[in-house]
Amino acid sequence: MSPEPDFRWMFPNFTREYNDAIYIYRENSRTWLTDACKKFCNDVTGGNCGNFIVHCTDFGRYLYHINSKKNDEYTKQRCKYYFYKLMFELQQKSIDCGGVESCYKKMIQKLNSSNYLKGNPSCEAYIDEFDKRYLLIFSKLDKISDYIHKLISKHHSSCWSNIYKECDEHIRYLMSCAYKGKKKFYDMLENVVNTYKKLCPESRITLLPFIEESKNKAEVTMSIHSPADETVEQASPPLFTIHGFEEVPNNALDAVKVERMLSNGVSDVGNDSGVISGFFLSLFIIFSILFILYKVKNMLNFIHVYRITYTIFFSVLQSRIKRVRSIFNKKHSEHKNMMESLEREHNFKVYNRFQIAYNTDDYQ
Fold first, then answer.
1. Separation between Cα atoms, residue 180 and residue 155, nearest integer Å
2. 44, 96 in Cβ contact below 8 A?
């Protein structure tokens, strides 16, 4: 078995080819294919396959495609893709048919007996290329490549946020997996990410430069001092050095720190967007509150000035009114006195006239 997943030239190309084969051969001997899949399900589960029947017909069409392209330069990659795709779906449906070789042979036998296939796609030679340890990595690469295919074929009109968020999550997992320091794996991942980024520029994924895992280059020990000055030595993980450099750094501990920083950087890439968004949202809220407080302060100052101005004006006006009122009262008093004086004078004259007239009558 390979010490690392070798999916070179497989993604995103063969995900697209798999989908195209399903579409091209969708009407080809449909009855024979359905009959073969029912027999396969009865053989491995006793007839309880659920919706695996749909996937089974897809696998049959892809085997038909492999058989039609028999023994060309991509047969190995096609067969490997088929094995991983088949075993992943069987695992998802909790169907056990005795391992990849047994499952493959049973499916081929049913397809041949139903006259859907004529001959053998010759994938037996590549059964050893399958390693169930890499099923999860395969599934994530396949999902990303499926989105790439649908974006290229315009099945999706645009790279919506739900698409690039899901793909970004899968890529972060792949960038932080145990094989990130393997050259074959990195080259394949780089090809997928570059294709994906062209179709989804909104993606916030950045693939770091290649870092190769060094084998048996150095062993680093770390001393941890307890309060009693006891030293405990602990072996560090394997060193990682930048590809192309052969010498181990003088300070091996610094190399370990660099590796850890890079690893943390990969895992934290997905959190940067959330932190930045939260930061700007907080700034916006703070500035909004400050602006509101500034407006309220100005309003209060205006009211305060208005009240002061109003009080001064009212005080001056009140003094003017009092002065006018006093003048008016004085004039009124003088007028009243004058009128009373005139009235008294008038009454006095009338009285004198009356008195004179009275005296004249007495003499007559």
1. 31
2. yes
